[in-house]
Amino acid sequence: MNTSAMFYAGDRKPTVIALHCSGASGQAWRQLGQALGDRFTLIAPDHFACGAAEAWSGAHPFKMTDEAALAVSLIDASETPVHLVGHSYGGAVALRVARERPNRLASLTLYEPTALQVLNTAGPDGRVAIGEVKAVADEVFAATKAGAYLAAARQFVDYWSGAGNWDAMSPDQQAGVIRYLPKLSLEFRAIMQERVPLAVYRRFNFPVLLLQGEQASQTFQLILRQLARAMKFGCLRTVDGAGHMGPLTHAATVNPMIIDHIMRAEPADVAIEQFLPIEKRLAA
């Protein structure tokens, strides 16, 4: 099992587990940890082949439940219900975790989750979207197999995050994506093998915040629309000016939205004022 995780704050506090996007690491949630302060314990685990985590062992065909196993174990070890957050691939993993431990979650936040299986419920538009995703995935995997890693990485990033985003990345960030390419095929196949009727999400009895960037692609808009329709306690919101990487590029906007959602799910004696800037607290 992947045992690498980043811990913030102390123990014996309400727990937030945040799951990162493909090719990143738990470090992606550092600003969220700082914004949460010492009221919560933030655990930001690394997915397989990310950060300090080992690669998938290959012991059997990789499944979403394998990626979800670490978060599930962290939830099982918690004395209180956990707040779960996921971005992109981390959002797809979070949905799997939520299915496995629905009675142990205090809240769920998803930013543009790559829950591609949801497209199967979106009618003709969903079928078109999933066909497009499959075609791009085939091209990325073919380029990777041929050793054209740079071309594969560029196509992957620009498809999911928008044209020009690859060129906007630092050399270190680009190198990280290139190193991660072999894992992408495992993730894609695992996501596509998920068969989840929307009725499963209707049984979630905890508040769910669904976030999309203002520049969200049609694919993510379809996924989030279907999830919002299915979830009894789901709320869909748009982050102004943001794209798919909003939790990183627009952290100053996204993190307060996540924290507000978490706080609303906490007992009433937890004061939300502690998360306000000091000048606002003094003026309150």
Structure explained in plain terms:
This protein has 284 residues and is of the alpha/beta class. The protein has one domain: 3-Layer(aba) Sandwich (Rossmann fold), CATH 3.40.50. Helices cover 49% and strands 13% of the residues. It has a seven-stranded mixed β-sheet with strand order 1-3-2-4-5-6-7, sandwiched between helices. α4 packs antiparallel against α5, α4 packs across α9 and α5 packs across α7. It is globular, with a radius of gyration of 18 Å.
CATH superfamily: Alpha/Beta hydrolase fold, catalytic domain
Helix content: 40-55%
Q: Which strand order do you get reading across the main beta sheet?
A: 1-3-2-4-5-6-7
Number of helices: 12
Number of domains: 1
Structural class: alpha/beta
Q: Quote the CATH topology.
A: Rossmann fold
The strand count comes to: 7
CATH class: Alpha Beta
Strand content: 5-15%
Q: In this structure, how is the largest beta sheet organized?
A: 7 strands, mixed
User: Radius of gyration from the CA trace?
Assistant: 18 Å
Element order: H for helix, E for strand: EEHEHEHEHHHHHEHEHHH
Second-tier CATH architecture: 3-Layer(aba) Sandwich
Query: Residue ranges: pLDDT <50 for 5 or more in a row?
Result: 271-284
